[in-house]
Amino acid sequence: MSKVMIINGSPRKNFNTAKLLKEAAKGAEDVGAETEIVNLYDLSYKGCMSCLVCKRKGIEQHGLCFYKDALTPVLEKCLNADAVIIGSPVYHSYPTGMCRSFMERFMFPAHTYMLDKEHGGLKRVLDRTLPTAMIFTMNATEEQFKQHHYDVVLGDNEMSLRAVFGYCETLYAFDTFQYSDYAKYDCDLFDAEHKAKMRDEQFPKDLKKAYELGKKLATMNR
Length: 222
Ligand SMILES: Cc1cc2nc3c(=O)[nH]c(=O)nc-3n(C[C@H](O)[C@H](O)[C@H](O)COP(=O)(O)O)c2cc1C
Fold this sequence. Notes:
Layout: E1 3-8, H1 16-30, E2 34-39, H2 72-80, E3 83-91, E4 94-95, H3 97-107, E5 111-115, E6 122-124, E7 130-137, H4 142-147, H5 150-165, E8 166-173, H6 192-219
Helix pairs in contact: 1-6
The structure holds flavin mononucleotide.
Flavin mononucleotide binds near residues 15, 18 and 89.
C-alpha cells in the first residue's frame, strides 16, 4: 500500500488549506493509499540550523535532517513516503514561516552540493522520484496573483521541490473565504457577499482539483 504524507502549514486545522488537504487525502485514499495528515503548528521545531552534518563525508544516511526535534519523525516519514503534499496559506506573499521551516529541513538534506559529472547538474540523494505537490490558498484574486508576481515567488517553492525530489506541481486557490463572519471584523477591503460567492461556487471546484491531485500523486509511482 502506498503512503501519502499530507503536511498542513496553516495554523487553522479546518479552514481553506486544511479542507483542500483533507480532500487531497480523500483522493489518495480512494485509490488505495494510506494517508497521514500532520499539522505543523502542533509541533515545536526549528528551521534548518545549518549544522551541515547532512553534507559531511562518510555519513551513513543521506537525505534525512540530522537535527533532532519534533519534526524528525515527520521528516523520516516524508522521505519514506510515496508522495508528499504540502499546503500553506500565503502570508505576506510567501508560505507561512512554519511551512518554510519544514521545507528547509525537508529539502536541504536531500539537496547535494555534488556535481553529477555523468548526467550534468547535481547528484540526487534519492534513487527514485518522490512526487511532491504544493497547495496554496490566498486572499488574492487570480489577477492580483499575477500582478504581485506570486507565480514567481510561490512558484520558486515548486521549482526547489522538483529539483530535489524529481516532481512537483502546485494547486493555487484564489480569493478564499477568510473570516467565518465578515461582519465582525474591520475589513471593508473585502466584499463579504463576493467572498461568500467564491466560497460557495469556486471553492468546491478547488476541492475537486485537490481530490484529483491526491489521486494523481498517490498513483504516480505505481
Ligand atoms: C498573517 C497573514 C498574512 C496574509 N498575507 C496574505 C498575502 O500576502 N496575500 C494574500 O493573498 N493573502 C494573505 N493572507 C490571507 C490568507 O492567505 C488566506 O486567508 C488563506 O486562505 C488562509 O488560509 P487558511 O484558511 O488555511 O488559514 C494573509 C493572512 C494572514 C493571517
